[in-house]
Write a structure and sequence with these properties.
By secondary structure, the protein is of the alpha/beta class. The protein is built from 13 helices and five strands.
Length: 261
């Protein structure tokens, strides 16, 4: 699980959540609504590390919005074994989040918490729930266990039961072009954003997409400053990466649309 140690976007919301937590007013059912790839999951990681690292070595650097890589809770969360955090993500070999994952979540929330700390259930994308798993989650939201908090990430435009949304306090997230640029350059190197091919730049809709595409081009020794849609499609077809590469597979219809556009 890749986690950005430095929080660049959504720092205002991050501070708002901390203030709610400090004042014992943190909602126990939070819905983070925003486009795919804008850093909702990263925001959750930083917020949880702030909470759980407070009484540990190498606690969260609140002034600079940085997770210390040596922090125990950070390492446990990366390995998906933190005793007070239950993360649900769609398995790569599945089309949806399986109802068995929701049942495991219910078992987790019914167990006693470690050191009597708060427990958090994180669902990385509500749009990956099907109707059965959505209804199972809804029942848990209607009857929450003591000391259990839900943070639910939702990619705008994907499937979501209105009954789930209505039971949560919703926060809407977005990125402006300036923050998008800072994230790209922070992850890939200074001034990368300014040098991306103009044939593609206008179509980048989120930092995750941009970073993944440039990494893909670098892996194939292609110049991201000169690549065209036509050359990209030719590479994808010649290598068969529409079947072998998850990023390409997830976005192949988008690339084809750009080609004909």
């Amino acid at each position: 699980m890749e986690i950005n140690n430095k929080l660049i976007a959504h720092t205002d919301l991050f501070n708002q959540l901390i203030l709610l937590y400090r004042n014992n007013k943190l909602p126990n059912k939070i819905l983070l609504n925003g486009n795919k790839g804008i850093g909702k999951f990263i925001l959750v990681n930083h917020f949880l590390n702030y909470i759980f690292s407070k009484n540990e070595e190498f606690k969260y650097d609140l002034k600079n919005f940085i997770i210390n890589n040596n922090n125990r809770s950070f390492q446990l969360f990366k390995k998906k074994i933190h005793p007070n955090i239950f993360l649900i993500k769609k398995n790569n070999d599945k089309k949806y989040i399986d109802i068995s994952q929701i049942r495991d979540m219910i078992s987790f929330q019914n167990r006693s918490s470690f050191n009597s700390n708060l427990k958090f259930v994180i669902i990385d994308n509500l749009g990956d729930l099907n109707l059965n798993s959505s209804n199972a989650l809804l029942k848990s939201l209607e009857e929450p266990s003591n000391n259990v908090f839900y943070i639910l990430n939702y990619n705008t435009g994907s499937f979501l039961l209105d009954t789930i949304r209505s039971r949560c306090i919703e926060f809407k997230l977005s990125l402006n072009k300036t923050i998008h640029k800072i994230i790209i350059n922070e992850n890939l190197g200074e001034d990368v954003y300014e040098n991306i091919s103009k044939d593609l730049l206008n179509y980048y809709n989120d930092p995750y997409f941009t970073i993944s595409l440039i990494n893909y081009l670098n892996e194939n020794s292609l110049d991201y400053s000169k690549i065209t849609i036509e050359n990209l499609i030719h590479l994808i077809i010649s290598k068969g990466d529409y079947n072998k590469n998850k990023f390409i597979n997830d976005n192949i219809s988008f690339f084809i649309e750009l080609f004909f556009y």
